């Protein structure tokens, strides 16, 4: 028990910084989602106007735009395949929510 207290005391500043970073990341998730959904709507609008022809073009356009709007510090930690899976997940959730107003996998 004494070693745990000593460890916590020695690394208290590191622990505080990690906790603060976690709170910052959690607070930015909603902003990230809002930007992603807005960009997805722009991509759908461009697809409707025949600027983007396929779903793959829309997805790539959204990923490229997300990298423009996300702060550079975050882009270092989110590689392109991870951003692609995040965009795909958010798109799936948006479709699920739009069909009946609930997230219940009823697409």
Any chance you could write out the topology, listing elements then pairs?
Blueprint (H helix, E strand, L loop, with lengths): L1 H9 L1 H37 L6 H15 L2 H6 L2 H21 L7
Number of helical runs?
Answer: 5
Beta-strand percent range: under 5%
Whole-number mean pLDDT: 81
Extract low-pLDDT stretches.
none
Compute the number of strand runs: 0
**Helix percentage:** over 70%
Q: How is the biggest beta sheet arranged?
A: none
Computed structural class:
mainly alpha
Described by the principal axes of the CA atoms, the overall outline is elongated
Radius of gyration from the alpha-carbon trace, in angstroms? 19 Å
Give the N-terminus to C-terminus distance in angstroms.
52 Å
Note the run of SSEs as H and E: HHHHH
Question: What characteristics describe this protein?
Answer:
107 residues, mainly alpha
Structure at a glance:
By secondary structure, the protein is mainly α. It has helices at about 1-10, 10-50, 55-70, 70-75, 80-100.
Fold and architecture overview:
It is a single chain. With 107 residues, the protein is an all-alpha fold. The protein contains 5 helices and no strands. The longest helix has 37 residues, at 12-48. The radius of gyration is 19 Å and the shape is elongated. It starts with a helix and ends in a 7-residue tail after the last helix. The mean pLDDT is 81.
